[in-house]
């Protein structure tokens, strides 16, 4: 799932940027949200506090967006 663009109903548009085998994946969200952090397990991995770790099952429940659709959505934000 690395590199996939996803849409979370709460956090908005994100991109999977790191993968921890058997554990979770770090998603970088393009809009700031006070509930996000910088990837605490690996400090500094999401500058500006736009990151969150999700289990792969959580990510599978989110909406996948192809790169072109994600680009359009980012411009609309």
Protein model, in words:
By secondary structure, the protein is of the alpha+beta class. Helix content is 19%, strand content 31%. The protein has two helices and five strands, in the order E-E-E-E-H-E-H. A five-stranded antiparallel sheet has the order 4-3-2-1-5. A hairpin with a 5-residue loop joins strand 2 and strand 3. It is globular. The N and C termini lie far apart (24 Å). The model has no long low-confidence stretch (mean pLDDT 84).
Strand order of the largest sheet: 4-3-2-1-5
Determine the N-to-C terminus distance: 24 Å
Number of helices: 2
Q: From N to C, what is the helix and strand string?
A: EEEEHEH
Helical residue percent band? 10-25%
- Gyration radius (Cα, Å) is 12 Å
Identify the overall geometry: globular
| SS-derived structural category | alpha+beta
Low-confidence stretches: none
Mean pLDDT level: 84
Q: Strand count, sense and closure of the main sheet? A: 5 strands, antiparallel
Q: What share of the residues does DSSP label as strand, in percent?
A: 25-35%
The counted number of beta strands is 5
């Amino acid at each position: 799932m690395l590199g996939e663009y996803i849409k979370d109903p709460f956090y908005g548009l994100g991109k999977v940027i790191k993968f921890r085998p058997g554990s979770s994946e770090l998603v970088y969200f393009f809009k700031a949200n006070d509930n996000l952090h910088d990837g605490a397990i690996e400090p500094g991995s999401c500058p500006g506090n736009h990151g969150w770790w999700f289990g792969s099952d959580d990510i599978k429940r989110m909406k996948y967006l192809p790169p072109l659709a994600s680009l359009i959505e980012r411009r609309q934000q």
